């Protein structure tokens, strides 16, 4: 069959869809990967997998209806040229406009995959602002239209469809809960933590306030009052298209103050995870974060928040801890607990690895996606 996958940026195609593309091609299907910002390196990598890269224009942020409708008809035209059997759209904007375009192009199977509800559905400490509530209504209407045209709707965690139901309407029979996009576990072998080095926490993710980045910085300051030699590695990119992104100036200040070790966005995340002791992600909402799955596979305890998407990665007290969102004091308290109980790091990390094998093996998850797509 011909499969069209519609996403956002080219690097996310390779970061998040690589193993699914390989699984589909191994079964003899043709895959066309739609994204923007393809570089020659991206194209070469994708063609090496056996897929066909297809450029299209996407305004990732904002709700300019005229720009978005233009994008939708551009997608419709490209889809009609390919005449696929299946369109799989993922992330919010591609889910809306990619599914509508596929419906207009009369594609038989149209799969919407929401890997999280994004900035608009992520609360602040005081709940949702008036602006966010207005945007939720608009987005809910658009998603309702998309879901009516979808043959299946995939969510990563069970909280997202429940929360989305307040603003969007959809048929429960179309819903599938995936549980995470998974990892090729052979690329993330277990690594025993080195307890002879300075104690190191690691944060991996886009540098956004809703990822809890500022909370972990504040918590680290409290930790350093008691344990000065403790380190915090931060891996991730600034996202200037996102209104909650930090600035380069913010990061430069933290580096100068020696609050963080910041190599930026790196291609060797695994090595940085291996050199750390505890993974920390105090996010306010997630789908099921890939970075946490990576840390679990490597064999690291997880310290994260008791919110949708994050709670799926922790058995509290077994492979890590859940703390309330926005609670810097509790976050710092648990960070200090790890420092004061170094003998628990390896034990908890081994449980994380076992959980990754059970829940986040890409071979099992891709088989489930292909089954949903009836391939």
Give a short summary of the structure.
43% of the residues lie in helices and 17% in strands. The chain is α/β, with parallel strands linked by helices.
Round the mean pLDDT to the nearest integer and report it.
Answer: 93
Shape call: globular
Helices, by number, come to: 14
- N-to-C SSE series? EHHEHEHEHEHEHEEHEHEHEHEEHHH
Low-pLDDT residue spans: none
The CATH architecture classification of the largest domain is: 3-Layer(aba) Sandwich
Biggest sheet features: 7 strands, parallel
Note down, in words, how this protein is organized.
It is a single chain. By secondary structure, this protein is an alpha/beta fold. It folds into 2 domains: 193 residues, 3-Layer(aba) Sandwich (Rossmann fold), CATH 3.40.50; 175 residues, Rossmann fold, CATH 3.40.50. The relative contact order is 0.12. The protein is globular, with a radius of gyration of 21 Å. The protein is built from 14 helices and 13 strands. It starts with a strand and ends with a helix. The chain has a 7-stranded parallel sheet with strand order 3-2-1-4-5-6-7, sandwiched between helices. A 6-stranded parallel sheet has the order 10-9-8-11-12-13, with helices on both faces.
């Amino acid at each position: 069959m011909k499969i069209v996958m519609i996403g956002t940026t080219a690097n996310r195609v390779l970061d998040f869809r690589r193993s699914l593309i390989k699984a589909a091609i191994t079964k003899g299907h043709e895959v066309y990967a739609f994204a923007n910002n393809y570089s020659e390196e991206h194209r070469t990598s994708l063609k090496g997998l056996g897929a066909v890269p297809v450029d299209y224009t996407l305004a990732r942020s904002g709700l300019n209806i005229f720009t978005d409708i233009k994008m939708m008809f551009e997608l419709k035209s490209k889809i009609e040229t390919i005449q696929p059997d299946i369109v799989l759209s993922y992330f919010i904007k591609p889910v809306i406009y990619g599914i509508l375009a596929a419906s207009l192009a009369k594609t038989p199977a149209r799969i919407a995959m929401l890997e999280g509800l994004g900035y608009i559905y992520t609360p602040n400490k005081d709940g949702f602002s008036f602006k966010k509530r207005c945007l939720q209504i608009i987005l809910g209407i658009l998603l309702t239209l998309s879901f009516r045209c979808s043959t299946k709707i995939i969510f990563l965690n069970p909280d997202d469809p429940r929360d989305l139901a307040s603003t969007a309407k959809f048929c429960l029979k179309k819903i599938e809960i995936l549980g995470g996009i998974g990892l090729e576990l052979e690329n993330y072998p277990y690594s025993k933590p080195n307890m002879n080095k300075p104690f190191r926490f690691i944060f991996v993710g886009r540098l956004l306030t809703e990822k809890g980045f500022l909370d972990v910085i504040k918590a680290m300051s409290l930790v350093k009052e008691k344990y000065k030699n403790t380190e915090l590695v931060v891996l991730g990119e600034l996202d200037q298209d996102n209104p909650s992104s930090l600035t380069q100036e913010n990061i430069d200040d933290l580096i100068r103050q020696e609050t963080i070790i910041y190599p930026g966005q790196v291609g060797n995340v695994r090595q940085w995870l291996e050199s750390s002791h505890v993974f920390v992600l105090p996010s306010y909402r997630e789908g099921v974060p890939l970075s946490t799955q990576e840390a679990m596979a490597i064999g690291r305890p997880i310290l994260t928040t008791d919110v949708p998407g994050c709670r799926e990665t922790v058995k509290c007290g077994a492979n890590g801890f859940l703390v309330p969102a926005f609670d810097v004091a509790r976050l710092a308290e648990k960070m200090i607990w790890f420092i004061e109980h170094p003998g628990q790091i390896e034990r908890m990390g081994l449980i994380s690895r076992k959980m990754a094998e059970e829940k986040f093996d890409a071979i099992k998850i891709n088989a489930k996606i292909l089954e949903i797509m009836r391939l």
